[in-house]
Amino acid sequence: MVMDRSWLLTDWESGLYVESLSLSSAELGIPDSRVEKRCLRGGLSDGVDLIEVAAGELSCTVLPTRGMGLWRASYGDVPLGWQSPVRGPVHPAFVNQAARGGMGWLRGFDEWMARCGLESHGAPEEDGDTPLSLHGHIANLPAQRVAVAADPSAGTVTITGTVHETALFHPKLLLETAVTLGLDSSRITIRDKVTNLGDVPTEMELLYHTNYGLPFLGEGSRFLIPFEELTPYHERSAEGLDTYDVYEPPTPGFVEQVYLFSPAARSGDTASLAAITNPQQSGAAVMRFDIRQLPHVAQWKSTGGASDGYVTGLEPGTSFPNPRSVEREAGRVVTLAVGASYDVTLMHEVAVGGEAVDAVAAEVAEIQSGAAGTVNSLP
Amino acid sequence: MVMDRSWLLTDWESGLYVESLSLSSAELGIPDSRVEKRCLRGGLSDGVDLIEVAAGELSCTVLPTRGMGLWRASYGDVPLGWQSPVRGPVHPAFVNQAARGGMGWLRGFDEWMARCGLESHGAPEEDGDTPLSLHGHIANLPAQRVAVAADPSAGTVTITGTVHETALFHPKLLLETAVTLGLDSSRITIRDKVTNLGDVPTEMELLYHTNYGLPFLGEGSRFLIPFEELTPYHERSAEGLDTYDVYEPPTPGFVEQVYLFSPAARSGDTASLAAITNPQQSGAAVMRFDIRQLPHVAQWKSTGGASDGYVTGLEPGTSFPNPRSVEREAGRVVTLAVGASYDVTLMHEVAVGGEAVDAVAAEVAEIQSGAAGTVNSLP
Amino acid sequence: MVMDRSWLLTDWESGLYVESLSLSSAELGIPDSRVEKRCLRGGLSDGVDLIEVAAGELSCTVLPTRGMGLWRASYGDVPLGWQSPVRGPVHPAFVNQAARGGMGWLRGFDEWMARCGLESHGAPEEDGDTPLSLHGHIANLPAQRVAVAADPSAGTVTITGTVHETALFHPKLLLETAVTLGLDSSRITIRDKVTNLGDVPTEMELLYHTNYGLPFLGEGSRFLIPFEELTPYHERSAEGLDTYDVYEPPTPGFVEQVYLFSPAARSGDTASLAAITNPQQSGAAVMRFDIRQLPHVAQWKSTGGASDGYVTGLEPGTSFPNPRSVEREAGRVVTLAVGASYDVTLMHEVAVGGEAVDAVAAEVAEIQSGAAGTVNSLP
User: Fold this and answer.
1) What CA–CA distance (Å, rounded) separates C154 from B87?
2) ipTM
């Protein structure tokens, strides 16, 4: 029998904090794996805790200081993620979310996958008496407990973290996340649980803002998703509806377009997916999720110039990234009962080679063949 | 002759900073005492300086990074303070006071005793052209000078700190505080001096937001204060006027009630007090103060669910926690002349045992017997 | 041949960060020089990187954490700069620029020379849909790359730094700065380059907020500048127009006055200057600049009480410190094409002795004799 191996890095209860740690394949008990934890110094990253984890061809970087977001990832020598104009990772001390009419979140935004939520996400608004800023707090809150665990028998390495988004007279929401990489797959699995720690029911919104740019995204990249319904976000998006699923090259001055999908699953099933292919159609980044957990997906096309942040977002969520009041009215905001949790399992996969990409496309097409595929031409 | 013993921990002038320090009873020269200074790492507390000081049965924790607030205290194994939904202490870098309509202060609020002020306290407002956020700056400003001093002959340990709340075109206010614990008493004495460092007179507000929750506060806990006048804060408070002095158990969804008191003293005297008893009436937390220094006391009942922050606040202040413009109009905002100081001496005592609690109640009753005790039924 | 000597202190790309470094005259290869880099701890300065550099009689302090601002300077034992009410240098984590109606910048303001910009500077406003706070971001952004270089053959020490003011959907502006001190002069040379890193043209504003107070500034100090045109900023400034160029002693309650100049150069030349003399006329602080680069100069008189921040500002800029929308309408906001840079060379000189001061005055008078010198009596 092989025992689990675990290392505690941060623990709010006991005051434990590990500044840096390197774990070798031998220490983890998993061939071809590696974990390295550091605390960055200097510039906008001063004080940011960062954990790099690699298993086989896949590696990614977790940011405990930024709500356990995934900063970067790569498969072999192919970087996933995007080139944000922001030189991060940015410590939340340098992000003033209330600034610029509630758009300050953008000053810290350079992650491959940033969570938006938990109280709210989407565009800033005054929701009743409550000013809400862009995409909520979770990406700028540090984790209170962080650990590494290896399971040699399963061949997996997992980074876990807990983030408290709580305050008096605010929602009391706890995020517990586990990011798992395994030796024998090209997959990162994210298991999140959001719990209402409070004594009254509370609303909750959660969206996985996953971003791809050059060189993975390029002219000819395709967006693949099986859907029941597709609606453009606004007039500007409606203009590009016919070509929502293909990408242009970097186009300075491009004004963003957003498409809102109800993702489809096979009859009797709840598993869905969305993917973005590279221009050569020789690789695809795939997200797999359960439509009971993430029933709404936004596709964000912000394909401006390379230096302005040429990027597309695949954004499965509990709701769409509209202002919360819009989502509430549409009945899409989750309410968590006292003590209740919301579970999400999300998989990032890398499909390598033309055949694998074709298989993803075939899978999407096959699910689509059983789905409505309604396209609304107006927002 | 016994010399004072002192240790400088932070000094802005000279650039001195002590990361950690442990002082034993022998080093302090005081039996049964202890001081420990640390800098917390990780999570929301990353970078927070914390000083634990204990003498006899009493211990408390001072937060230089949060305006020399008192984070926690305990008597023997009984914790004072409350269980905030916030997992702190929270570094001010994670508190955006301007957020959420000026309510961002709450994201850092988990102290046993937080000072509110110094430029203003109370609810956010636009006071003339000046937007003021909830409860002012002082709890989110770090101390520029921090020291420990022991006086073996008096048997006391004192933590001192200075906090500058200053900026061009803002009030220039200096807080100098000394927190003293003594071997032969169950008392923490706080001596504060607020000085106008500027060249023109300036307004000043100061309130001691002292908070009790489970297990000290519970169903049947009583609030004791001798008063000249009592006024409910708003309609919601007026509803509970008849039972302002008793506490309900944790009640999810409870909407806060606030009562405003003019505390009374014996004829010819200026000493007053307020207390909160435990449910068993076997213990009481007592605050003693001078009504010339702190002529206004707010009682805050926020007895929602245990996880939502079941809490009551005893809040003696230079004014009530209304918006500053309201307090100014009522003539309750202090103006400090150039170079002038405002002194406050405040004592936290723990009454242990039924007899001690009865003695506090009797003291309050006796003072009340000579006071008007006017109760205004409308806000 | 003498090689350059260089030391990298912070590098975002490689993750390099040097906590502290002392370089002696011998290590720098320059007689009578010194560099010391530290990271401050405790209070408002916690986490601030600071570099002191001295060559001959002149020394100054550079703040990588505050946008490469110049915190303090001195010539011999004469301090330049001013005594701000702020006890800094202040880490940006303690500065909430959005607070108090966009005036939060003042909570960190105590530099001798702070840059204002790069997206905007001047008074807060809502420029179209975009709320802009006082004086922009650059002074509260940390440098991503910092280095020291010595050139023994030239006899100079240079501190270089790069600061990124970038975000998605924001301007993408890069500041590269080099601060040079040389052995055989009483001069600090600042060479700045601001580059549009983005893929679309962008507006840019840059102003050098250089501040003098006691003891250098005092009653009888004079302001010297050759100008084509002078306009008071507002009615209050118009009141003092006749005596704009002389200073009163510290005057508690003094309300600020601002004068806007179009600086003049000799016919066929573009070199201009502005200076402030000490009360004894035995010393002057001189700024030299090129009117093609910095065609606008504001003089700020804020000569309140000594403890309120008795100060004057010499502020050459690419535009005046009006709200950006006002400057845009007047055609004074620079637009940078894609990839374009804006270069500024600025020299701070110290004139020592009555003769040197007279020479500065004569130089100003001589340039003025060939310039229009129009004085507008109304704002």
Assistant:
1) 56
2) 0.96
